[in-house]
Design goal:
single chain, mainly alpha
């Protein structure tokens, strides 16, 4: 049980840090009328990203 709680805590910390790091992009997407689920989704990057 303790290991599951630690894993959950680490996941939530990472999620919070990722949201804080991409705050401006998320706010921009929300202002364009996208849903919160879509606004918080990571944007694909790299050679396989859609253009």
């Amino acid at each position: 049980m303790a290991i599951a709680m630690q894993a959950t805590a680490l996941t939530l910390v990472r999620l919070r840090d990722d949201a804080a790091a991409s705050r401006l992009a998320v706010e921009a997407r929300l202002s364009l009328g996208l849903s919160a689920r879509v606004a918080f989704a990571p944007t694909p990057s790299g050679p396989c990203a859609p253009r």
